[in-house]
Specification:
The complex is a heterodimer.
Chain A lengths: L3 E4 L2 E4 L5 E7 L5 E8 L3 E8 L6 E2 L7 E3 L5 E6 L8 E8 L9 E2 L3 E5 L1
Parallel strand pairs in A: 2-11
Antiparallel strand pairs in A: 1-3, 3-8, 4-5, 4-9, 5-6, 7-8, 9-10, 9-11
Chain B lengths: L3 E2 L4 E5 L4 E3 L2 E2 L6 E8 L6 E7 L6 E3 L2 E6 L4 E6 L8 E9 L5 E3 L3 E6 L1
Classes of the chains: A mainly beta, B mainly beta.
């Protein structure tokens, strides 16, 4: 099983450019999450989804948008990238209602905004 | 905000020493979940344990043990006889029953020296 796959793994953007990060999971999980990780700040929740067609804001949603058109995919968009969005982005999924005990994480996307 | 606090930013020990990583959480929920994740230098997040708020039994898994105390809102993690391979950043996290969002602490970097 592939688990949680994030693409791309690395990306460099110029300020003002836009891009979309893709997260795909093959475990039929209902819940999906986007986190960013910055030095000394741990992982902070950007947006999350509790099912297909639904999204909600996390701790740090400003500057990002998300969509969950298909259950297996959760997209994170940056409409106008800023240097403050330089970070490592992690996607995660789980299915609490089925008794799954943990979040399954992707391997991360290193994004640099110049 | 209902925070998760890992006051120890970095800990350095010599191999075979025991080490305890502290985690203190805030919550107004009666039902919640606590987690520990390990992030080795390779960057992926490795699930270690989940504990439910209604189960205060301590847990031991090999060299790892966890002490959950609701009275002090703490969920501490002890590594016995540490090894170099234990070097990593360790994150404590809390999830609420209603939304299952994981809120992470800022992490503790553990360095185990030979």
């Amino acid at each position: 099983n592939a688990g949680v796959t994030q693409t791309p793994k690395f990306r460099v953007l110029k300020t003002g450019q836009s891009m979309t990060l893709l997260c795909a999971q093959d475990m039929n999980h209902e819940y999906m999450y986007w986190y960013r990780q910055d030095p000394g700040m741990g992982l902070r929740l950007i947006h999350y989804s509790v099912g297909e067609g639904t999204t909600a804001k996390g701790e740090v949603p400003d500057g990002y948008n998300v969509s969950r058109l298909k259950k297996q995919n959760f997209l994170l968009g940056l409409e106008s990238a800023a240097p403050s969005q330089t970070s490592v982005y992690f996607c995660a999924s789980t299915d609490w209602d089925s008794g799954v005990e943990k979040l399954f994480f992707g391997s991360g996307t290193q994004l640099s905004v110049l | 905000a209902q925070k998760v606090t890992q006051a120890q930013t970095e800990i350095s020990v010599v191999e075979k020493e025991d080490v305890t990583l502290d985690c203190v959480y805030e919550t107004r929920d009666t039902t919640y979940y606590l987690f520990w994740y390990k992030q080795p230098p390779s960057g992926e997040l490795v699930f270690l344990i989940r504990r439910n708020s209604f189960d205060e039994q301590n847990e031991i898994s090999g060299r790892y043990s966890w002490n959950f105390q609701k009275s002090t809102s703490s969920f501490n993690f002890t590594i016995t006889a540490s090894q170099v391979v234990d070097s990593a950043v360790y994150f404590c996290a809390r999830a609420m029953d209603s939304s299952y969002k994981l809120i992470f602490g800022s992490g503790t970097r553990l360095l185990v020296r030979p």
